[in-house]
Structure formats: structure tokens, C-alpha cells
Amino acid sequence: MIALLIRDLRLAFRAGGGFGLGLAFFLLVAVLVPLGVGPEGATLAKIAPGILWVGALLACLLSLDRIFALDFEDGSLDLLATSPIPLEGVVAIKALAHWLVTGLPLTLAAPVLGVLLNLPGPGYLWLVVSLAAGTPALSVIGAFGAALTVGIKRGGLLLSLLVLPLYVPTLIFGAEVVKRGAAGADVSVPLLLLAGITAGALALLPFAAAAAIRVNLR
Amino acid sequence: MELVVENLSVARGGLTVLEGVSFSLAAGQALILRGPNGVGKTTLLRTLAGLQPAVTGSVSAPPESLTYAAHADGLKAVLTVEENLQFWAAIHGVGGVAQAMAQMNLTELRARRAANLSAGQKRRLGLARLLVTGRSVWVLDEPTVSLDVASVALFAGVVRAHLAAGGMALIATHIDLGLTEAGVLELAPYKAKTPVATGGFDEAFT
Q: Which of A39, B10, B49, B80 lies at 20 to 30 Å from B110 by C-alpha?
């Protein structure tokens, strides 16, 4: 399983692997929004939590279709399905690799981009905490969506439509954590709900995704 | 150790393509599957490999003993020959990468990226993967596509060595591999007489 993780990370970092795509998109959103909204600090501070979370979510969405599509096209997925690793493990490892390549860099870059959006001081800690707690769910839910659409050529649109509704709870609670954190209020309720969604997704969706892949490989 | 297939029916796209296929294979034996295009060779092999369920009948094989190689080699273009093999060796928890490269005549290409290999070299690399799986039953779908005469002979030698070591091989092919000791199963007589639709809305749960 470690070998699969190492291979996926290596593929992501080599030419054409798509590392940095999500990060670049996130950066563009955070740079362009202040230009569009105007330089008024109070307005930006008000919308910053929502913009940062929407940006992170869409950045995650960009690279989802690659999770299984590439392995399906070159036949690796067939071979992995007949290998000693259970397909559930393959899904979990691939979701982890996706998170390491997209979710983690987004989480680390978010405070820097928060400055561009005039995020109030106390919000930075909670921005990082909420993204760290929420982005794993984005990767696992995304892996499930990618598993559902794995045999479809150009399945990106369908994948987005399937996955976006599932992302909504994570977005609502994630942005709420930052909003409350920035205002200096208690964040425990939305943060616990956010972490709960992530834990539930991590526990259940690898099994659902593996079942979907088995059907799609027939 | 034995692979036994009894009264197997397989379906593709909701239509039964082959029915009543029965054969058995003991250690050290190979079976060549022949039949016209579309008769269901690939479908049969995918069913045997466990990638799709059988309509009826049974396949009994020792657990975790089959490995499958098809038209797609499962290679990553940005990894080198050696890295590709090392990955599959690690997945299966066995070694022997250097030996596998030597057997398929890939040693001098070891540092080359798979993207820069010719079609025949890619095929050789895909077949070298079989050697690092440690599996005893090779299920091969057209293994010799794009191989030249010398490589076909090389591959036949590898299969023969695998059989001599107690392995088994099921090979769907149109060309003569020179494996004279292998049995031949002609699939045309098993073509489904009444191609009825199978499956339904609950196919995900079967």
C-alpha cells in the first residue's frame, strides 16, 4: 500500500502530474476576488471566510477526475483490482495521495491568501484548522465520485454534478468555523460537525467507492 | 494445485456470449484459447481473473493465484522501466525485478521512461510484470500483440520456464506461440445459442 502511495505522489510531482494545479487555482481566486469586489477592507473581511472555503473546494474539484481515470485508461486499475491489495485500500490510498497533493498544500497556503482578503486576525488559526479538518472529506468524497464515473470518457462534468451536493455540508460548516473564529466567537459546534462529516466519509466511502469501481470494471 | 472451470457462462454488455465452458488445468500445464473475434475470449479471461461475475457455473482456483495481463499494460509513461516493475513487485510483495528485466531482455532499457519505449518494448515490459507478481496462474489476453518474432520466441521461453516451475498459463491468442505442449481449447462451439439479456437493476448488489 505504501508502494501505491509513493507511486501516486511520484506521478503527481513528475511532469504533467497535475501537482500545483489546485494551488494555482486557489491563488488566482484569492488574488482576483479583491480586484473584483474592490479595496474596501470591511467588505473583504466579511466575505473572506466564504471565498477562501469556496476557492479551496473548487480547487479540490479540479483534479478529482484524475484519481482513477488515468489508472483506468492504462489498465492499471484492472491489475490493481486483481492484486493482493483490497480495492477499498486502493481507494483509501488514492484519496490520501490526492489530499497530500491538493488538500494539504491548500491548507498550508490559505493563511497567506487570507492576508489578500483582509481576514481578521483571530480567523487565521481557525482557517487552517477548519481546512485541515475539512479537506480530507473533500478528497474522500471526490474519490467516491471519481469511482462512480470511472468508465466514462470526459466524465468531469458528471463528476462535478455528483460531488458538489455532497460537498455542501463540509463547505457550510467549514466556512462557519472561520466566520465564528474571525469574530472571536465559540467555534466548537461547527468544528465538531465538520470533523464528524470527515470521519464519517473516511469510514464509509472507501467501501462505497470500491463497490462502484467493481461494477465499472465489468 | 489445480484450476477447474465448470459449466461456465459469461456475459458481456448484458448478453451471454459463451456458455457451458468446462476445462481443468493442473500445475505445469498451459491452455491456448482460440476463437474468432468477438467470440468472448477476453470476457472469459476477465471472468476467470475475477474482474466480472460469471452468469452461471464456477471457477475454482487457489486463492490469490491468478494474475491478468491484457491489451493495456498498466504502465506509467513518466516512470522508468525499472520503476514500473518495482512498483508491481512491491504491490505483490515479491522481488526479482532485475531477473525479470533480464528474462524479458529489458536490462539495457532499465533507466528509460516508459513513454519513450516502442510498442513492442512496452509489451515486453507489460509481460515482465507477470514475473514480479509471484502468482502461479497467468491469464493472458493476446500477449504477443506488437511483438516481433524474436520477442515471441523469448516470451514462449519465459512461459515454458514458468510452467516448468509448476505454474499454469491460460493464453488467448491468434498466432502460434510455439508452445507445442500446450492444450488448445476452441471456443467457437461454446458460443451462446440463445443470447438472452441478463442482469437488471440490482446488478450492483450481486
A: B49
**Residue of chain B whose Cα is closest to the Cα of A73:** B72
- The 10s digit of each residue's pLDDT in B123-162 is 989 889 888 988 889 999 888 888 888 888 888 889 989 9
Residue B87, CB half-sphere, CA atoms under 13 Å: how many? Answer: 22
- The reported pTM is 0.89
| Helical spans, DSSP H, in B93-185 | 97-103, 119-131, 149-164
Check CB contact under 8 Å for A11 and B93: no
Tens digits of per-residue pLDDT, A33-80? 999 988 888 889 989 999 999 999 999 998 888 889 888 988 899 899
Q: Report chain B's terminal Cα–Cα distance, integer Å.
A: 28
Q: How far apart are CA A131 and CA A172, in angstroms?
A: 12
Tell me the three cell numbers of residue A15.
Answer: 511532469
The alpha carbon of A77 is separated from its chain's Cα centroid by a whole number of angstroms, namely 22
- Pick the residue of A5, A10, A11, A83 with the most B CBs within 10 A to test the interface with B by mutation: A83
Question: Please, what is the Cα angle at A62 between A59 and A66, to 5 degrees?
Answer: 135
ipTM (interface predicted TM): 0.86
Residue position matching grid coordinates 462512480: A148
Q: Could you tell me if A13 lies within 8 Å of chain B, comparing CB atoms?
A: no
- Across the interface, of A3, A10, A215, the residue whose CB is closest to B203 is A215
